[in-house]
What we know:
This protein is an alpha+beta fold and 112 residues long. The chain is 38% helix and 19% strand. It starts with a helix and ends in a 7-residue tail after the last strand.
Amino acid sequence: MNKQQLTQKIDNELSGLPSAARNTIAIISEQYAQSKTASLQKEIEELKASKWISVEDRLPENTGQNFSEKVLILYDSGVISVVFYDYEFNDWSILHHPIVTHWQPLPEPPTP
Length: 112
C-alpha cells in the first residue's frame, strides 16, 4: 500500500467521526510525525558525526585559538587516543609522532 492509498484508507475510516475528533487526530498525527522526523534527523547527524575522517580529507576545525576541540584519533597501528590538533605547530598534541590516519569528533557525554 502506498502513501496515497494509506491516506485515503485513513480518511475513509475517520469520515464517520465528529469533526472535532478528526481535527484532534490530525493534530496529534502531525505532531507525532514532526517529533519522529526531528528524532530521526538527530540520529542521522549523530551517525554522520561518528564516522572516521581521513586526515588527508580534512583536519578538525580550528577553534580560533590555534587548536581544535579534543577529538579521537586513529594511529596506523590501530591505537585510538584523545588529543587536539595544534594549528600553531601543524601537528597533533602527542608526545611521540606515530602516523595518524583518521580522526572523529568525541561523542556527546551521557546525560545524568
